[in-house]
Amino acid sequence: MENKNQEPNEEKEKKLKNKNFIDAWVNAFNGIIYSVTTQSNIKKQLVIAVIVMLISLLFDLSRAEFLCLMFTIVLIIVAEMFNTAIETVVDLYTDLYHPKAKIAKDVGAGGVVIASINAIIVAYFLFFDKISDIGLNFIRNLANSPVHMAFIGIFLIIILIVTLKAMASTNKHKLLKSSFSPSGQAAMAFGANTIIWLSTTNIVVLTLSMVMAILVCVTRMETKQKKLGEIIIGALIGISVVSLLYGLAGLFLKYF
């Protein structure tokens, strides 16, 4: 009877132990495959890792910086694999809530969080200066381009007017209602007029742009599409948005 009981135990030990070095590598590779194919967090981390590695090609990283980046990526994936192993072992021994089982899972998850925080710190020191320089140059080029500034100004006016009209349609606000909402045409007309006033000193062009803006507003009133108050608010919105945008651009160019 003892021999019969010992045989299954010996077979279990053989299955748990690696026969040789190659067998150990095969089992380790199976563990990697299992983690990648079953754990959604590891899948996401691998996708992010590939994206980060591709982005790193755009920067002139030194050998030490690249190794630091690689080590950080590997550390997060390894931490997630250890967390998966801990959760699997805990679930193997108990399906019920137990304080110690919770501690084991929480500690494993904590390791992943620490690795992630480390990755954020490393990314900051590796990429912040490089990205900030690119961002500043991009904004500086926009601020120096009248065409781009005009396009951004009109785009911001459209977004703001659409938002205000959507709020007015709900009838949940005291000032904005379906019966009283700012004029989009007036906002666009005076926004464009303000852009022209800030972009040129030609008195003829300035006068014509003002006349056109006023005519747009008068037309809206004559057709009884909008009230005087709605037109005034729309015009103030257009002027304010463009003035604020160009003012911020001027401050940026002055100090950066």
Main sheet characteristics:
none
How widely separated are the two ends? 86 Å
Helix-and-strand structural type: mainly alpha
- Indicate the overall shape: elongated
The number of strands is 0
SSE diagram, text form:
Elements: H1 2-16, H2 21-38, H3 40-56, H4 63-93, H5 99-143, H6 146-169, H7 184-199, H8 203-222, H9 228-255
Helix pairs in contact: 3-4, 4-5, 6-7, 6-9, 7-8, 7-9
Pick out its properties.
mainly alpha; Helix Hairpins; single chain; 256 residues
Short structural summary:
This protein has 256 residues and is mainly α.
3D structure, described in words:
The chain has nine helices and no strands. The longest helix has 45 residues. It has two domains: 92 residues, Helix Hairpins (Orthogonal Bundle), CATH 1.10.287.3610; 107 residues, no CATH class. It is an all-alpha fold. The chain is elongated, with a radius of gyration of 32 Å. Helix 7 packs antiparallel against helix 8.
